[in-house]
Write a structure and sequence with these properties.
4 helices, 88% helix, 0% strand, rod-shaped, BAR domain-containing protein, CBAR/FAM92
Length: 221
């Protein structure tokens, strides 16, 4: 892989790592807000249920609010705690164990190539000097060429391993993102299916017949 392409790829990967961290931060904020909303949702329905005179409707209202609270408690670990270990720590591993070492190896190759170019120039410009000095310079140049070849081979090998490692870790991250969302909505569907069924069974014809109770506000006037 040519130097410019490799450097660009590493830069691209670093950008994606930062983008993932920003995405998780926004996701966590949204989930915190959703948990707070479900708390308000449950409290509001509880208050409404307390004022409702028809018991079946009051029970449905209370049950609906309880589902919101249950969803928060049963999904909190998956939605709020797992992203730290299953996503953010994995992003850090990609950065520390893959991207940074590859960048250092790339820097080593750049240095080796510069030294080789310098020795080559010195050798080409050598007009004077003993044969021994020229031979010494040639050995130095040959040794440096081998170093460049070795670092290139090492870089190619590490790049292949890096690609496998990166894809493996990214697979874990994407899987966690998908699974957490699927879990949340599946749990919500499971919980809210019950009050939906109970609400569907409500019929106004079953309410107690008779004169409606007077409005407390009207009685006090």
């Amino acid at each position: 892989m040519e130097r410019g392409r490799l450097a660009a790829q590493l830069q691209f990967m670093e950008h994606n790592a930062r983008a993932l961290e920003e995405l998780v931060a926004k996701m966590m904020k949204a989930r915190e807000e959703q948990e707070a909303f479900l708390g308000v949702f449950a409290k509001s329905l509880e208050d409404i249920a307390a004022q409702e005179e028809w018991v079946p409707l009051a029970q449905c209202l209370g049950g609906l609010g309880e589902c919101g609270q249950t969803l928060v408690s049963e999904s909190h670990d998956v939605m709020m705690l797992r992203p730290e270990t299953e996503i953010l720590q994995v992003v850090t591993q990609i950065q520390d164990w893959a991207i940074v070492p590859m960048k250092r190896l790339l820097e080593d190759r750049e240095k080796a190539i510069k030294i080789e170019a310098k020795l080559q120039k010195e050798h080409d410009e050598m007009r004077r000097g003993s044969s021994k000095e020229k031979e010494k310079k040639m050995r130095m140049l040959s040794d440096q060429k081998r170093r460049v070849e070795n670092v290139n081979a090492l870089l190619d090998t590490h790049m292949e391993n890096f690609d496998r490692y990166r894809i493996q870790k990214m697979k874990k991250i994407v899987s966690e993102l998908a699974r957490s969302q699927a879990f949340y909505y599946a749990k919500g569907l499971e919980l809210f299916a019950v009050p939906c069924q109970n609400i569907a069974k409500l019929h106004s014809s079953e309410t107690t017949k008779g004169t409606p109770k007077s409005n407390p506000a009207e009685s006090s006037s």
